[in-house]
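RECORD TYPE: protein structure
NAME: ParG
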Amino acid sequence: MHISITDDLNKRFHAACALRGLKMSQVVAELIEQWLKANEAPVIV
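PREDICTED:
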């Protein structure tokens, strides 16, 4: 996946992740999961 964000946002995100010992991809995956839980249509079987 490729996304476009400003250099400033990228630097801030990178620094915040590094301070917590996390990889940016880990945090992005977690944020996507949270967003999907809130926005994904329920699956009807």
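COMMENT: Residues 7-39 form one domain.
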